[in-house]
Please model this.
Amino acid sequence: KVMVRGTNNAKGHFVLLLIAVCLVVFFLSQSFHGLLPHNNKGKDHHVTIVHGSTLDSREADATHFRAHHSSEDAYQARPQPRTWPESRTMHPVEQRPPHEFRAVPDHLSQPDRHRVQQVDEEEEEKEVRPAFRPIGRSQVRSASKPASESKRAPHKWSSDSDEHEVVSKPVVEASVTKPQAQALVRKYEPADVEEGCSTDDDCSGHGGCRDGKCVCVVFYTGDHCEKPIDLPLGLQRAPFKNFKSSFDGSMILNQKKVRTRKAITVHLPGKEKDPDHGFRTLADGKVLADLLPLLPEEDIMTSNFYETCAIVGSSGILLNYDDGPEIDAHDMVFRFNSAPTKGYEKHVGRKTTFRITNTQNWGFHESEKENLVIHFRAASSVKGLFWNGNQKNPWRLYAFDPDVVEYIAFGLDFMATSGLYGILLAMHRCARVDLYGFQVSTEHGTLYHYYDVCDIPANVERDSSEYLAVKALAEAGLVHLAEPCIIECHNGHAECAQCKRASHFKDVALPSDSKCDPNRKSVGHQEVPWRAERRRHRKP
Model:
């Protein structure tokens, strides 16, 4: 009995021990179940691609564990910057070579995700990274050229070369080509952020940079003054029916432009009956070679931008107002022919930037600082440039380039006056154009020219065409008439009188023209210099 009882006790102990061992094995298997690899075949696990991340074995195991033992709502993805595309989800990582990217499960908690995305600098240098990847403009600065030297930042991309330095490493898409990177940068840039400017060169040659923004000339618009304006309806008929607001040629004849030509030629419409049919060669061969050193190196007119410009005509109405200081306050002042300032400073000002003159008035200038600009439509213009170049103290004498001569000649249906030349050129170089002493009617009761009581119109028909052009520009708001009642007095006596009363027009006493020749004709006030010399030499 004793032996049987001992055997039974041993069997019970063995059973209990066996049960205990099984329990231990069971619990151990459950504990390691989460760390053992799973069969993911047939399942979709969405992951976000992270370039440049390094994971050791312990972090990888922990990452895998959390991916399968966390709820899908445990982590909310961080909001990405506006310049970046939203993180794209990709299907099983086995589909891509492991050296191109590392997979980070979407369900990591925020702290864990930050830790996973930390980059080991030493490991990063050993990785094979994609050739190009799209990044925002603010994330790159050029290693070869400081950002402060860049006038207008172009679209950029990052690369493994030394040309660019990556400042930040956000979560982005996998490898893309260079053109794709450029396209993505443009696509994901904020649409409401416009580039500014740092110099006038950023304004397409049709404006100036002021306080980081482009200020455009009258005939251009756009963030960088790159778009010619649409001409108003009033400028789409005579005398502007063929006129275009865009112009990118030269205004002043210069060496840089002439070097690209074999000859200086100009085509003038309306001259078809002339022997040359309007196609004139003004200089070629040796004449052109000799003329070249007499010209400025670059165009002195298109190289400058002016915010305000005063175009000062010669009408006697200037004597009715004391606008001299106001005129001088403009950045640039155009005057014409032999209109003087001395003795009339209170009314017309002292400042002259450019004086446009015809062949009848070449002999007139008031100071050595004046820039005289002559029309360039005939061989006599070339003679004038040579004559001036041979003087001991030559004037600042320039000629209009054929580019601008043909631009105006083909844009208008009449031969433009010097005054209209000045207006149109100013609209290509100035943000605001103010007209003083232009197109005053006889109804105003003023002199034709403020400086000569005996002057009379040289070409009434052409003056009438010029008035229509000035009126159209003023009514479109592209230029501004300084004196009141200009248009009203052209409309008739009654409307003129009413306007003058409303504007408190100040009448001034006119000098007597009793000593003027009743049969007088309009002539130039100064003889062309070389003609005067030739006349003196012919005297006995």
Summary: Residues 2-33 form the longest helix (32 residues). Residues 47-188 form one domain. The longest strand covers residues 306-312.
